[in-house]
Write the structure tokens for this entry.
Amino acid sequence: MKTIRILISAGVIAWFVSPTEAETPLERGTYLMNGPAACANCHSPIKPDGTPVPGKELSGRLVEDNEAFTAYGSNLTPDEETGIGAWTDEQIITAIREGKRPDGTIIGPPMPIGLYRGISDEDAGAIVAYLRALPPVKNAVPKSTYRIPLPPSYGPPVGEVASPEPGATAEYGAYLAGPIAHCMECHTPIGPQGPDFANRLGAGGFAFHGAWGVSVSSNLTPHEDGIAGYSDEELVAMITTGTRPDGTRMMPPMGYGYYANTKPDDLKAIIAYLRTLPAQPDPQ
């Protein structure tokens, strides 16, 4: 018999399912959103200490303010006036995977549309199921402003995207670290056209601005400047707790609290994938 326990706390719906049963879309979406996808890390209002404001989860906030843009994470709750309550499922998926709103306007950075184009149909639907289950929160978020040109599109319409085979493999880790957790978006140096995936994948160097000051994403490649000197266990601890082997704390905006909910095999898959990246020195 399938066993489900439900926890509703501070506007977050969590489902705990017996591991032998197949997940429903809502269960899968709950895992992704509260685990590796960590969408709330950019879309939930936060207090000065970086923790979410209770009752405001996924209702939008200022994400980044730099020379290129002032970006706000939008309200993802089903409020019909200030959120996505009036959008269809297809419109939500198009916004996520193609970066296009129902009115035709383009969603700009730091939303990692280039990676999100690879989210499978099943996982995109699961994320929508989770968003539909949230309580609506009325929170009007300012529009983002860009001092750089945005592309007319991020490519042709996304067709069918099959779900990869899950497992503690580098292949599945590429899916998790790419389209799902977008690790590569934040941990790849920026070039003239955005993250330089072709030449500097995972080499770090992306600067983030916030209440903590400025933090720079680390090198995730198996170079001596990157993760070569860390064991898998040490990397898991760093990802899920924000603590280095020497006990020092890592800075925001890494969503350590969300990544702590990631399944052990998924963490193994991500690390296995990172070990396969071409070794790159830190950006100069």
